[in-house]
Specification:
It is a single chain. The protein is mostly helical. The protein is elongated, with a radius of gyration of 20 Å.
Length: 150
């Protein structure tokens, strides 16, 4: 029962994000119409998890995952983030400060970017990921990280 629920969860997740999943699924139509065995379900779940992990670490995957998350930001948060982004970088997600210490749409330092769960260069991350990370920072720590624009 738990394996079937886990299988359904991963199948829905891959469908929602548009990740190709054809080979990961247990065959629905069989000649003998028997239910899938526990081994077949485990193998399919393992394949789906691997495929999602590989996909979610690509640029397109990160953008898609965070696009869904950005929809959860309340309207007042979106308005405040828009004003911060305009003030910090004039809405340029690839902006880099003159010293090179602050990067991206919200001018993250590498340390702050890491604190909110980002990895790599903030200016290289998708716009949706930068917005989500800025929302996490704003929600947990307030606007003090943007002393001029917050």
């Amino acid at each position: 029962m738990r394996l079937q629920a886990s299988y359904r969860h991963w199948r829905r997740k891959l469908e929602r994000y548009g990740v190709w999943y054809g080979r990961n699924l247990v065959r629905a139509a069989r000649n003998d119409e028997r239910p899938p065995t526990a081994t077949e379900l485990r193998r399919s779940i393992r394949r789906m998890k691997r495929r999602f992990a590989r996909w979610s670490h690509t640029y397109e995957g990160r953008a898609m995952v965070h696009r869904f998350k950005v929809r959860q930001i309340p309207s007042w948060g979106r308005a405040q983030l828009r004003s911060i982004a305009w003030c910090e970088s004039h809405n340029n997600p690839r902006a880099v400060s003159s010293s090179g210490a602050y990067r991206g749409l919200y001018q993250f330092s590498f340390g702050t970017w890491g604190v909110v769960g980002g990895w790599g260069d903030p200016a290289a991350a998708p716009r949706s990921e930068q917005s989500w990370r800025a929302w996490v920072l704003l929600k947990k720590h307030g606007s003090g990280h943007w002393p001029v624009c917050g």
